[in-house]
Design a protein that fits this description.
By secondary structure, this protein is mainly beta. The chain is about 15% helix and about 45% strand. The protein has a single domain, classed as outer membrane lipoprotein receptor (LolB), chain A (Clam), CATH 2.50.20.10. A twelve-stranded mixed beta sheet has the order 7-8-9-10-11-1-2-3-4-5-6-12.
Amino acid sequence: MCLLAAAAALGQPRIGEVLSAVEKRYNHLRTLEVSFEQIYWAPGRPPRAERGIAYFRKPRLMRWEYHEPAGKLFVSDGSSVWFYSPLSRRVEKMPLRASGDWRAPLAVLMGELDFRRFFREFRGRHQDDAIWIQALPKQETAAYSHVELLVGPDYSIRRLVIHGRDQSRMEFRFAGERLNPGVPMRLFRFQPPPGVEVVEVGVGQEGGEQSRD
């Protein structure tokens, strides 16, 4: 019987054991490919949904390749992140650690997942065969008030919801995980399209996903 089933039988989710199983699943990966839907809510504005495929490779390499809207890219080469939007005809480059974008921590955590390092309190509730886990950040200066994870019976992360302190909300819905697929290094080398402006964004200047078109 898996931990989630055992927890359901007891009526209480064993959050610590579930988190350890999630860490074990992802920390042993070399590469990961997953389809995603990204939904952003901001106060007073209609929600915005985007879709595509994300590729991850140790250490800290990732590529978010959007099909809706077509051509949009978010790439981490391990030290810098590159964001390109065909709509703006502009590329933003910034240090990975300094990026205010919600996708950047996912690159840092690839292969280094440690919930207790970044969060101080966890709460759980069941949803069918899965469990929602709410986590509160250790740092009071964090840009988010809490995050929520929907963990499946195989300990995959099905959904990730980030609640901003400004009442915004970013949700990632994941499906079709492929563990350790062949992911070529060329996917993580970003080459700006010809004639597109490249802007280097420093620490404290990046506004994150909510500032972008």
